[in-house]
Design goal:
Blueprint: E1 2-12, E2 21-29, E3 31-36, H1 43-50, H2 53-56, E4 61-68, E5 71-72, H3 78-84, E6 85-88, H4 101-105, H5 107-111, H6 116-129, H7 145-158, E7 163-167, H8 175-190, E8 194-198, E9 211-216, E10 219-223, E11 246-257, E12 260-271, E13 275-279, H9 286-294, E14 301-306, E15 311-314, H10 327-338, H11 344-350, H12 366-377, E16 384-388, H13 396-411, E17 415-419, H14 423-429, E18 432-437, E19 440-446
Length: 451
């Protein structure tokens, strides 16, 4: 029996002539439905139809019908749909309400007036299902992006909805964290509920899915899950020269919060024209390490040094960087401030953004926003490049474009440091790989000398 039905559904965002969804018809029943397709193709828009954010929050025009758990999406307030549909967004940092983990997980139950005893039981169960029981008592501001993602999943599961919708739920997670999320998704599906997941990384999901829907240019197509073929890993162009002198260093550095030390006694350095990749679990300290190198966080002890020059820093939440009216103007502002003669079109073309260069960045899909933020920080020749989960929300084409851009920066003398759970990108670009875990940093591997 279908929990959700869309029949010839079309949707236009405000002031847009081309529909974001075009004559979409599909049914979602118990089990796992995967939603795939390129960035900007309409995946997130489709998912937001299930909980009524399209059209109630985003506005615009809608045609056709959408029914979820017997409720007409267009005629039903989102507060009622929220009881039947649990939603985990691409940007978990933007959906946090409370500062403490347990209160955040129980926020939805609190809103519907759940009895205190029942609320405690459901919150505890949801935290176990999402693998975040060890975060009990922690403040949200001390969590990594991946930890926030799992807390957001726990918040959705606590409501015990009939339909759970997740938009890129594993894009910031380490392998263990991703495994816990996939276990939780499978448990919900096995319980007879429906789960809809939008993902670019499908390898771990296609084998347990009931259907696969590809979304491209607003249109949907059913694909047999067993017919899915994993994309080829990216390859890095051969380097044009050897790494240069030391670009940055950490000497006996301790960092974190007064009540929570994240890194302790770290010794690490990077060179010009070199790519260093940071691996390790969520919450291990990768973001803290990047902030130390950038100068955005002062160490509790030890010294941090870096060569003079422009620092290009991409945080985990790229939306925080985007404030200009258009993507092109974001790039132009960076080039102007840096005194770089490069045209904005160079990096817009390199990252496949020419078609959206005139759009407001915050109106774009998560993957397009990620590329826009990269375009805003990476044009020209920055001395130091720091990237925190740069492939978040990216499709295969965008990921490959990023790898080529990193090669160009490396060969122009930039020192590049990236924190990533994307093993394919890490293995393609890194000259050195370090694991950041339990307050320490240790080298895992050295890339082949042919890079």
């Amino acid at each position: 029996m279908a929990i959700a039905r869309l029949n010839r559904l079309s949707y236009w965002y405000p002031n847009q002539r081309v529909p974001a969804l075009d004559e979409v018809s599909l049914q979602v029943g118990a089990g796992l439905t995967l939603v795939a397709g390129p960035s900007g193709g309409g995946k997130s828009t489709l998912l937001r139809c299930f909980n009524g954010l399209v059209p109630h929050f985003h506005g615009g025009r809608i045609a056709g019908s959408a029914v979820v758990d017997g409720m007409d999406v267009v005629a039903t307030p989102t507060r009622r749909l929220a009881r039947a549909v649990g939603f985990v967004f691409q940007d978990p940092e933007l959906q946090t309400v409370y500062d403490m983990v347990e209160r955040e997980v129980g926020f939805g139950l609190e809103n519907i007036g759940a009895p205190p005893r029942e609320m405690r039981e459901w919150v505890a169960q949801a935290m176990r299902d999402a693998g975040v029981e060890h975060l009990a008592g922690r403040r949200m501001r001390t969590l990594s992006g991946g930890e926030r993602q799992r807390v957001a999943l726990a918040s959705a599961l606590a409501m015990r909805p009939r339909l759970v919708v997740l938009d890129e739920p594993t894009s910031q997670l380490d392998p263990d964290g991703a495994g816990l999320v996939l276990q939780a998704i499978s448990a919900v599906a096995d319980d007879g509920r429906a789960v809809v997941v939008s993902e670019h990384r499908l390898a771990a999901l296609v084998g347990v899915s009931t259907q696969l829907i590809n979304v491209e240019r607003g249109r949907t197509e059913a694909v047999e899950p067993s017919a899915w073929v994993p994309p080829a890993p990216p390859s890095l162009p051969r380097r044009t020269g050897a790494p240069g002198g030391e670009a940055w260093s950490l000497r006996d550095v301790t960092a974190g919060f007064p009540d929570h030390v994240v890194l302790d006694g770290v010794e690490l350095a990077g060179r010009q024209g070199e790519v260093v990749a940071l691996s390790g679990p969520n919450g291990g300290g990768k973001t803290t390490l990047l902030r130390l190198i950038a100068g955005g966080l002062a160490p509790l002890a030890g010294t941090v040094e870096r060569r003079p020059g422009r620092i290009a820093y991409l945080p985990q939440n790229p939306t925080a960087l985007l404030h200009r009216p258009t993507v092109r103007s974001e790039v132009a502002l960076t080039l102007e401030r840096a005194g770089e003669p490069e045209s904005p079109e160079a990096i817009l073309e390199a990252l496949g953004l020419c078609d959206v260069a005139g759009r407001y960045p915050r109106d774009l899909s998560c993957g397009e926003r990620q590329r826009s933020a990269l375009a805003a920080v990476l044009p020209g020749r920055p001395s130091l490049v720091l990237l925190d989960e740069p492939t978040r929300g990216m499709d295969v084409g965008a990921r490959d474009a990023l790898v080529r851009l990193i090669a160009r920066l490396r060969d122009s003398g930039s020192s590049v440091v990236l924190a990533t759970h994307d093993a394919a990108v890490r293995d393609a670009v890194a000259d050195r790989v370090y694991e950041v875990v339990r307050g320490g940093v240790r080298e895992l591997a050295r890339a082949a000398s042919t890079k």
